[in-house]
Amino acid sequence: MDAFGIDIGGSGIKGAPVDLEKGCFAAERLRIPTPEASTPDAVARVCCELLDNFRVDPSVPVGVAFPAPIHPGRPIGYMANLDKSWIGVDITAKLSEACHRPVRVVNDADAAGLAEARYGAARGSKGLVIAVTLGTGIGTALVMDGKLIPNSELGHIAMGKNGEDAEKLAADSARQREDLSWKKWGKRLTKYLRLLEFYLSPEAFVIGGGVSKKHEKYFPYIEVDTPVYPAKLLNDAGIVGAASFAAERW
Ligand code: BGC
Q1: Which residue has a Cα nearest atom 9 of ligand 1?
Q2: How many percent of the chain have pLDDT more than 90?
Q3: Measured between alpha carbons, how far is 234 from 250 in angstroms, rounded to an integer?
Q4: Could you write out the three-class secondary structure of 58-121?
Q5: Domains, the chain, ranges and CATH?
Q6: What is stated as this protein's family in its record (predicted)?
Q7: Proportion of the chain above pLDDT 70, given as a percent
């Protein structure tokens, strides 16, 4: 096994061994629902369960994609969609201790952006590419000439009339919660991507997250000047990117 990736999300925690040469799963992934109280202890237990299930040898690099800004060696300072008790926890230390091995942690959208840059829709791209993941929240990854600029958090830019976060209005969870048509949601995504386009002038957008597999339904309603591509690794990008991140030299 080259490396193992874990993607911690608001509804599921998924893990799979990853083939780093091809940038894909080396075996079918396992998904365990995120514990209702998604506390550090509860989430760490699920990570251990995933590693045990695949009998991951302690010598195998393990990468974890996590939905918050990550600064290795520093505690989590901000948490939008999991239990707030993560704030103040050094997640790398916590998971490494719980899983009895060194674990590397990366922001989930950054993991997806890395995977798309190394193996997917942004491979070989020049200039700035913004990967946007649409799920419970909105995650963003800035990839410049193939290199990641970490922790961008552009899902939280103000978009609503009263300054509401973009993710409250345009994440896939907003589409489901408000039962929006693909057209209505596509229009909200247009508004969001237009803001990113205005502020950052990227060369391209890559749209990922679980809903990227249904991109034909809403891509026709996205009207921006920048080229928009669906993620190639679809929802696997978090796991593949985390594994690839963990296997880099320390
Ligand atoms: C978090 C980001 C994360 C994104 C997608 C946001 O609410 O602040 O860190 O990448 O959700 O999970």
Answers
A1: 68
A2: 92
A3: 27
A4: CCCCEEEEECCCCCCCCCCCCCCCCCHHHCCCCHHHHHHHHCCCCEEEEEHHHHHHHHHHHHCC
A5: 3-110+236-248 (3.30.420.40), 124-231 (3.30.420.40)
A6: Belongs to the ROK (NagC/XylR) family.
A7: 99
What is the rounded average pLDDT for all residues in the chain? 95
Kindly state if the Cβ of 110 falls inside 6 Å of ligand 1.
Answer: no
* Mean of pLDDT values over 211-236: 94
Work out the burial of residue 109: count CB atoms within 10 Å of its CB; fewer than 13 is exposed, 13-18 middle, 19 or more buried.
buried
Summarize the confidence of residues 45-66 as an average pLDDT.
97
pLDDT bucket at 1, cuts 50 / 70 / 90: confident
- In whole angstroms, what is the distance from residue 201 CA to residue 139 CA? 18
- With a 6 Å cutoff on the Cβ, whether 235 touches ligand 1 is no
Q: How far is the CA of 48 from the centre of ligand 1 (A)?
A: 23
Q: What is the Cα gyration radius of the chain? A: 17
The pLDDT of residue 249 is 60
* Cα–Cα distance measured from residue 190 to residue 193, given in angstroms and rounded to the nearest whole number: 5
Write phi, then psi, for 244 (nearest 5 degrees): -65, -40
In the chain, where do the E strands start and end? 3-8, 12-19, 24-25, 30-33, 62-66, 103-107, 128-134, 138-144, 147-149, 204-208, 228-230
pLDDT, tens only, 81-140: 999 999 999 999 999 999 999 999 999 999 999 999 999 999 999 999 999 999 999 999
d(CA 233, CA 113): 10
Examine the pLDDT at 250 and tell me if it is beyond 70.
no
Closest-lying ligand 1 atom to the alpha carbon of residue 69? 9
What is the token pair recorded at 243? 């594994």
